[in-house]
Design a protein that fits this description.
Blueprint: H1 3-37, H2 42-51, H3 56-66, H4 71-81, H5 85-88, H6 93-97, H7 103-108, H8 112-119, H9 130-158, H10 169-184, H11 189-205, H12 211-224, H13 226-235
Helix pairs in contact: 1-9, 1-10, 2-9, 3-4, 8-10, 11-12
Amino acid sequence: MNSKSRLATIKYAFKKSLPVLFGYLFLGSAFGIMLYGAGYNWIWAVLISVVVFAGSGQFLLVSLLSSAAAIPTVAMMTLFINSRHMFYGLSLIDKFKAGGWRYPFMIFTLTDETYSVNVSIQSVPDNVDEPKARFLIGEFDHLYWILGSVIGSLLGQNLPVDFTGIDFSMTALFTVIFVDLIIDTKSKICGAVGLFCAFICLMIFGTDNFLLPALILTVIMLVAAKPFLQKKEVIG
């Protein structure tokens, strides 16, 4: 890959990751603030964000650390919280494998927001290396989270400010990405199915337990409707 193509790929990946940048600065800051409140300084914020990088799992980790939970408990809870990645990550296996040696790192950096950005990529400019761009998007997002966690830890240490509610930024960010994806996609059926499944499972399982059943139900319905969706795409 020549220098022009490399530069174009970096610029493309950075531009695509910008929505996540602003969200992760707030979300990472919320994590850093909570971690500092639990008695861990910015060095721990960096270490956890580099090694774990689990988004909502890191917020849970703060509570588990505060309660002196056993390591097996921490591992099992983190696995359960992030088990949703097993479902939507399947749709990106072929695209990630095209990245060669970058494949493991692309899996590691796959978060909800990174997944949404990857799905929104329908095509790339001719001078952009798509596998490398997808890799860089994940790496940029990871860097944003680390930076946010450090900022939050330092803010918590030096500013006597009430940061209650800052963790809602994660919900707001994902909502914006979802709406943008729906607008850019010709067929709205998949989005409608996801919303329907989420609503039904929310009513049945409640706010704390609806996510995993909703993902399972969504996958089942989309697989069952695949022939119809393919037929509609061909006709359209």
